[in-house]
Amino acid sequence: xxxxxxxxxDALREQxxxxxxxxxxxxxxxxxxxxxxAKSLPIRDLLREEIDRxxxxxxxxxxxxxxxxxxxxxxxxxxxxxxxFYERLVASAVPELIESHFVKGKPLEKFLYRKNGKxxxxxxxxxxxxxAKQQCLALRxxxxxxxxxxxxxxxxxxxxxxxxxxxxxxxxxxxxxQIIRSGIRGRGGGGxxxxxxxxxxxxxxxxxxxxxxxxxxxxxxxxGAFMDRxxxxxxxxxxxxxxxxxxxxxxxxEGFVYIRLEYxxxxxxxxxxxxxxxxxxxxxxxxxGTDMEFDVRIHQGAGAFVCGESTALMxxxxxxxxxxxxxxxxxxxxxxxxxxxxxNNVETWANIPQIILRGPEWFxxxxxxxxSESPWSGSSGTKVFSLVGNVRNSGLVEVPMGITLREIxxxxxxxxxxxxxxxxxxxxxxxxxxxxxxxxxxxVDFDTLVEAGSMMGSGGMIVMDDRTCMVDxxxxxxxxxCDESCGKCTPCRExxxxxxxxxxxxxxxxxxxxxxNLLEDLGAVLADGSLCGLGQTAANPVLSTLRNFREEYxxxxxxxxxxxxxxxxxxxxxxAFECTGCGACVKVCPTNAIAGEPKNLHLxxxxxxxxxxxxxxxxxxxxxxxx
Length: 627
Prior knowledge:
- By secondary structure, the chain is of the alpha/beta class.
- It has 25 helices and 22 strands.
- Strands 9-10-8-7-11 form a five-stranded mixed beta sheet, with helices on both faces.
- A hairpin with an 8-residue loop joins strand 12 (367-369) and strand 13.
- Helix 10 runs parallel beside helix 12 and helix 11 crosses helix 14.
- The radius of gyration is 26 Å and the shape is globular.
């Protein structure tokens, strides 16, 4: 096994590139968590068997990659170098695919992507609208490398950033200055400038003459979020290289990745990447043949949402309960083991090597604002979002800062399925807010989202259609936070319980005139009195839905009605005269509550109806109404 040095890293890369170029084609099979759960690994194995059986093994290579991003269409396989995109593959189609594509030279049409599943096939990945507006920096190697092969990562450019720094002898202040000039702000939720954080850590370490620590926060607990997990699964060496550069900047020799146990695939690939990096001389002592020393260990979290907060995370790393402490002393000065500690999330670390390699001005030129004087003056670079909910093309997307919500939801996400209309998009996870259709043309960056009453957060983005009850959405997030609150401070512990009680009462049709003021008052108490940022922002889903969808709360309280037809205690279904008597609703009703003669108006027995809404889902004539 070769040890990489400053002198031979380029040669190792060229050697890996030559091995790669020896193949006529590469079958890049998505092996992120989503596609693995859709049985992509058996398909990968069958592809290898079929290729070997036909004697094509020396010309065609099958590579298991990390998440491709287009998760709703898995299992996915992309044929390189052409970029032919196959979706929703099944194991039984493998022989036919190999025969058609590689023997007859014709892509197998029935597994090519079709917009809305109906139109003409679009063979090439680059022509699919989901990918067209994306700009991948943190996800630069998604679907392009084997994340379990360090040689493949080096072929794609891994460790060139730390190589550049060590070769040029760049240290401390000079590295920090580059990160500040890039304008990058933390992708974990707070949006604090990364370079300023590193500067504070470096100064604290020098002032106290102690060794600081470098930590990667991979404790991703927001509902609907899977950005950090996917980056680790797809390109763990990008994260490790970012940490190496951070360690060089602040003078750390030890680093940690805090990652939740519920991410087994990411954990497995991270362990393998660390072991390979050590064996190749890219972690440990004598990195790249220099006197630099830095190693990374893994801390497994138990999946507590609060452990994503910096002080709670470090308490957990020290073996104490994962509870936050007041931040009048910052962890960047007194963090892990009371030492200066730089904590950044996965996406932030993955961006760092590109900033060093391509220059801070290049990074600053992407995004919004002018960060040349201060990183607070804009949002540079890109942001990775997990786009989920009522949207056609759900998946993992990376877009330049400043793109509008409309472009993400409609141009990339393909819009709202099933003929429904857009109602809201929730950004920032449980700490964020729900934005209505009137905000769709807002540019997406740190400051604009906050001004609109939401936040960037770590990058969860949940799209909701017109059949979403915003009161129920607020209740869902508060319910989640009630379960996840550590309970250390009274405002968060008791305030969330009270919020949940009020919201539950409203969704059951038992709301009171005073409840809206009570919700606002409770939200203010949480914001002002909670100990940590999670408690301080916990009421945001309630306050943002109150601000943007107040009429729905009023309908629940004043009219005892749920306009979206979600809150069962307030819903009555009926069939209108649009009914053609097709019988579709009769066939799916689980309680036989619908009756009627063919081609005649049907009726619903409200005594038997359990309000499941299945009849409304299947009715193509919009005849089932909510009262």
